[in-house]
Amino acid sequence: MIIPMYKYSFLVHHSAYKDFLKDIRNIGVVHINEKIKDPTPEMQDLYRHLSEVDKAAKKLKMLEPKEVATISKLDSGEKIFERLKDIEKDLEHYFHAVLQLEKEHKQLQPWGDFDWELVKKLKQEGITTRFLLCPIKKFKPEWEENYYIKVIGDHEGYRYFIKMDRDSSENDIDSENLGSEELPGADEVMLPGMSLSQTKAEISAVNAKIEALKDELNHIAFYGQDLLQAYQEDIQKQIAEQNAILQTSDEVEGKVKILEGWVPETKKAPLDEFLEENQILYSSDKPEDEDKVPVLLHNNRFARLYEVIGRLYDLPNHKELDLVPFFAPFYMMFFGFCLGDAGYGLFIILAATIAKRKMPNMKSILSLAQWLGLSTVIFGILTGTFFGIDLINADIPWLSKAKEFMVNTDQLFNLAIILGAVQILFGMVIKVFNVKRTQGVLYTLPTIGWLILLIGLAVVFGLKSAGAISDQVAGTAQYAIMIVAGLLILVLNNPKRNILINIGAGLWDVYGMATGLLGDILSYIRLFALGISSAILGMVFNSMAMSMKPDNIILGPLVMILILVVGHGITIFMSSLGAFVHPIRLTFVEFYKNAGFTGGGKAYKPFAEPASKSSE
Q1: 114-194 maps to which CATH number?
Q2: Nearest to 499 by CA among 490, 508, 507
Q3: pLDDT tens profile 572-616
Q4: Which of 3, 21, 465, 470 would you call most buried, defined as having the most Cβ atoms within 10 angstroms of its Cβ?
């Protein structure tokens, strides 16, 4: 259900306004009415900063917390954030340095571990050492006779060698022959000014710095997550305060501050008490039709689990019904219908139960998984499927009586169509109440007409088929139903239009309903198709495990178990994904459409301390 909201207007003297904002933030029930949508430059900076801090906090949660006694602790979330930024920059710098050093190390490897000091000393004595390489096939033995050349070795199809040249004066003609033209096919290599051992030592030193920074990150993850979260909350608090000031209007030359907001009916008592005690001038009114009212849902424990699914589409507006309690039982049934294997359902229940103990922050999601697993178990028993085993055709004596209650493929197909028709008709009943709340009773008449037509004809057909009424009575009843329904659908569909326009619009509505209703009902065949496909996949993997196991007393069972675990794991993942997505599609398209869902609601977010906000 949607909790009714009251629109509050506060009139406060400018000298007491800051204290007033502090007090209502502590009470934490006022959703400030946002008249100005564009944030100030200061708020934009805070939003960007909050985004950066949020990213840092998420990265911190992905680390392995570890206490390191040699590293000092920082005493604030702001200092932690700044240190995290510095560490990120340093790590990026060191990673690039390691890549460059590894590149230089690879470049030096063919030349061996030589001492650059010797090269420099030779240079001082007037001898230049040149590092050359060429394809092995192009290396000419006469080069070693004509020049002072020392072959270092061959590597990846190239011959590496050095050539020693004596320095000549600028006017010496031989100095022009120092280029690679004197050795056709050879290229000179410019090596880094470090030896192989030096690059290796440098790589080790930089990696040690990287590991030290990683240890510091893990240490910060050990003690600093709460401090960083507190820093996030402080930024959120600053944004909320600036937004409250932004939405405040000035009157009487700025001496009076006016603020408007929304308060749920269930939470207005502490606010009213505070306002009366402090003699603050205010007004409290019910919303007008044109008001953009925030939405706060309040459902029982079962329906509350499905609010996360409803939020994937949209929140209802404040004038209509909250559809979560109405689609929750159907969604649960449809999930079980699509997965339809008792073994898979038991696995989901067990996995969710274990995960709830280790991940208490995901308790509601895992509780939802338990309910969906229970539905899967029920439908698995109904269809006689357990980890891909067809219990209906299996020769299990103690299941012989239970098989009478299991459904075959034809019955499963009919059940999918029946469930679809029931949900669509149920949605139309809800539409009657939705339209009554938003537009008035007279606008519900065409929907009531369709309900009378569809349900009435179905009841008459059922009674006639059962022999409860004669053909003559059935015919009379059908004519009466069609006359009443036709009057509501074609003539009384809009009280503000004349009859001729209503008849034209009604005929178009008949065409739309006739084609749309059939398509909506046929959409529920997907329940049958997904249920059959998951069962077939399980049976295929069972068959593969039995046929592909080798005839070995030890290896055979191991291969069979491996195929079963991998195969059923894939089936559970793929089938569960389909069982989650397709009922959502049926809910948001077929059910929401026939229930007259409008949506467009905005979530209730009170101006409150961050801890209070998170507890909502």
Answers
A1: 3.30.70
A2: 490
A3: 999 999 999 999 999 998 999 888 888 888 889 998 887 544 334
A4: 21
Residues 6+ apart with CB under 8 A from 500: none
For residue 394, the 8-state DSSP code is S
Contact 347, 387 (CB under 8 A): no
Alpha helix segments (H runs only) across 443-554 = 445-466, 471-486, 499-523, 525-548
Cβ(445)–Cβ(492) below 8 Å: yes
Fold of 1-33+247-296: Alpha-Beta Plaits (3.30.70)
Among 423, 376, 418, smallest CA distance to 530 is for 376
Secondary structure of residue 465 in the 3-state scheme: helix
Distance CA 326, CA 311 (A): 15
- Give residue 404's identity as a one-letter amino acid code: E
Of 307, 318, 316, 321, the closest CA to residue 600 belongs to 316
Place of tokens 């009916």: 265
H or E stretch including 26? Answer: helix 17-27
Query: Six-digit token pair at 529?
Result: 């198709």
Residues with Cβ within 8 Å of residue 568, at least 6 apart in sequence:
343, 344, 387, 388, 538, 541
Q: Write out pLDDT tens, residues 536-555.
A: 888 888 888 888 877 777 88
